[in-house]
Structure formats: structure tokens, C-alpha cells
Design goal:
Oligomer: single chain
Distance between the termini: 49 Å
Number of domains: 2
Largest sheet: 4 strands, antiparallel
Strand content: 25-35%
Structural class: alpha+beta
CATH architecture of the largest domain: Sandwich
Order of helices and strands: HHHEEEEEEEEEE
Number of strands: 10
Helix content: 10-25%
Shape: globular
Length: 193
């Protein structure tokens, strides 16, 4: 295998291991489009902001997901790679994206949410979501539908600390949640009992 292909494969493997979800640093303005890049253009993502790319890719499921694209949500940037090229796309300066997959029976380990490979158990199901700050303020209290990938995602204020509670079909669960620079963008520990 040529040297540059080996390096590209190693970079893709590293990104996948850091993302943790698989099939089996500069903050930015949410409205600013991502830099023009052939990598984004190849997947019809050029001209979209980091926030728009996240929102678009996280809602895809199954065959709609690009099989050879990895997109990993970090605290301040979206890292996108096709194995041969890697691009960091800025995310909003004041917002932090958290995607979570509540489950009853099965889950997977995850820290940085992979928009193209993470798969949760509860696909396109109505769930009741409550996000409460550590001060007792309710930030979110609504019924939403999980995406085709079994996740639901929210753009939260940076520096938020509190509790995420989800109810579904008579089951309920809750986990602590935080949006600091070292906090996960992927929550797969929310078991509903």
C-alpha cells in the first residue's frame, strides 16, 4: 500500500477510535458557512455551516448515510474525513451539540458522536425529554421523535450542567449532562427502565 494511503487509513482509524461509535479547535459562528472544500462538495455539504452539517447528517439513517464519510462532533468543531482528506469545521461559539440515544435493551460506547455511524436502539420513536439545570431551571420540556439513527440531538448553551431525563412507553431514565470543553457530545448511557 502506498505510504500516503497508509497514513490516510491510519488517520481514519484514529478518528473512528476516538469517535467510539461504529456500525457493529477554533469556535465559530453558527451562521457562517464552512470553508469551501472539495470534501464537503463531494457530499453536497458545501456552503453549509458546521451547525447545518451536524443537523443534516444526524437525521440520516440507513442507506441515506454516506458510507465512506466519517463526521465526528467535538466540543468546538466537526471533524470530517473520507479516509484520504480530513477537515475541521467550526461549530457555534456559544452552543454545544449533544446527541443522545436512550435505550431499553442495547447500547454502545460513545464519547464523540459520529453522525454517520452511531446507531441507537429507539428509531423514530416519540420520547419525552426534560433538561433541567443544576439550579433547577428547566431548559427543555417537550416531546420529540428520535431520528432514523435512534438519537435525538440538542444545541445547548456552553457551560450547562444538569440532568437529562427521558420517558418512553412507560419507561424512564435520567443521566447527568454537561457542556464543557471536555464533555462528551454523545450520550449512550441513558437506560430506560
Amino acid at each position: 500500500m502506498p505510504r500516503n494511503r497508509t497514513a490516510a487509513a491510519a488517520a481514519a482509524a484514529l478518528l473512528l477510535s476516538l469517535t467510539a461509535c461504529s456500525a457493529t479547535d477554533a469556535p465559530g459562528d453558527a451562521s457562517a458557512p464552512a470553508a469551501d472544500a472539495p470534501l464537503l462538495a463531494a457530499y453536497d455539504l458545501d456552503g453549509l455551516s458546521g451547525k447545518e452539517i451536524v443537523d443534516h447528517l444526524d437525521r440520516l439513517g440507513g442507506a441515506d448515510r454516506p458510507a465512506d464519510l466519517m463526521a465526528s462532533v467535538r466540543a468546538e468543531e466537526l471533524v470530517v474525513t473520507d479516509g484520504s482528506e480530513e477537515l475541521a469545521v467550526e461549530l457555534p461559539e456559544e452552543e454545544f451539540y449533544v446527541s443522545f440515544a436512550p435505550y431499553v435493551d442495547s447500547t454502545h460506547e460513545c464519547y464523540y458522536h459520529s453522525l454517520t455511524t452511531c446507531q441507537g436502539e429507539l428509531v423514530e420513536q416519540d420520547i419525552d425529554v426534560t433538561l433541567t439545570s443544576s439550579d433547577g431551571d428547566v431548559l427543555v420540556d417537550e416531546t420529540t421523535t428520535t431520528y432514523a439513527n435512534g438519537f435525538a440531538g440538542y444545541w445547548l448553551p456552553r457551560g450547562f450542567e444538569g440532568t437529562l431525563e427521558v420517558s418512553y412507553d412507560g419507561y424512564t431514565g435520567e443521566v447527568p449532562i454537561a457542556t464543557g470543553p471536555e464533555d462528551p457530545t454523545c450520550i449512550t448511557t441513558l437506560q430506560l427502565t
